[in-house]
Amino acid sequence: MTDACPTLFSPLVLGPVTLKNRIVMAPLTRQMAEPDGTPTDEMAAYYARRARGGLGMIITEGTYEQDGWQSKAYLSQPGIATDAHVAGWKKVVDAVHAHDCKIIVQLMHGGRVCDPRCLNGEPPVSASATHSGGWVLYTDTDYEKNIRAIDGPWPKVTFGPARALRVDDIHAIADGFAAGAARAVAAGADGVEVHGANGYLLWQFINPKTNLRTDDFGGSPENNIRFAKLVGDKIRAAIGPGKLIVLRLSQDGVDDFTGAWPGVAYAEAIGAALKGSAYDALHWASFDYAANRQTDSAEPMPAALRRTSGLPMIANGGIFDGATAETALTSGAADAVAIGRAIFAHPDWAYIVRSGMPYDWMPFDRKYVIRPPLDYGLAYPLALTDPKWPAP
């Protein structure tokens, strides 16, 4: 064993939790749950295999926290809203803990980018009455049809116009996050991550492009982050001081891949508003953690958030090997690194990096996520057994 990446392989205290190293598996949307949102044995095996690869912590894929309020964003998305969900996640958590790895459940609400097939005829909800111009991911492209061996038309599924949430609605949804967090803890999780990034509901409040409100929940960075702070407060009251609470933030979203905040000054204001909040750490999600997309400062957004909030930072994006991970940690931008595609493709990423030996990393291709075709009307990546098939 070499001394490669000494910072990366040093322990880290995040609130009430100590990680054995600073390698975090980023949340990766897979839609592998049962149609009712119950986590599957396949999910337990998937997460356990990566925990066995030497990770310090896993952040699960986005999980809807309640059955109401148009929370569910995807077909076959896992939930943490029922007793069956809790039992399913307990299998996952126990399998991960068996490999000395922490695991937190990412709680998310889709907001205006919920798949309309999940909404039971109700409109999506958002910070303001806006309408996403995007569409449900991985539909209506030649590439997707090719890797799934689909013939014939495959319709693009678009989002409906969103209804603006009332203040009492906001509090009800925050209560749902708290209840979901309590269920995650009941399943044995070491805490939760609140998804305030990537275009989903809390992002729609934090981003001034989608938050057009003039009340206490909009109109300034401090007001835009207020909903996320409310969620954190209610979660802390529900689960107590002994569990980790992380807030994920980003500039871009699933329907705005080039989205940007109004400069690093905006990140500084968000960070300052989060100082002393219920969150133990922040998680910056980006295609490149060092790319600000604005020119008012060269300081990376996660570094500015870390500096002004006083909270530890998990940085994601543009980190794929030991050298890029160590740079993120020693530059002041991060206290831990979240790695997604590289760990998906190489479950033993941590051991490979720790060896210090040169390694020919396999390029990630989304076709490796897809199992052979089953029922394309259900979800992506469709690894569920077709109920019409005879038992083996």
UniProtKB/TrEMBL annotation:
Residues 8-358 form the NADH:flavin oxidoreductase/NADH oxidase N-terminal domain. InterPro entries: Aldolase_TIM (IPR013785), OxRdtase_FMN_N (IPR001155), Oye-like (IPR045247). It comes from the Bacteria. Coiled coil: none annotated. This is NADH:flavin oxidoreductase/NADH oxidase N-terminal domain-containing protein. The lineage of its organism: Bacteria, Pseudomonadati, Pseudomonadota, Alphaproteobacteria, Rhodobacterales.
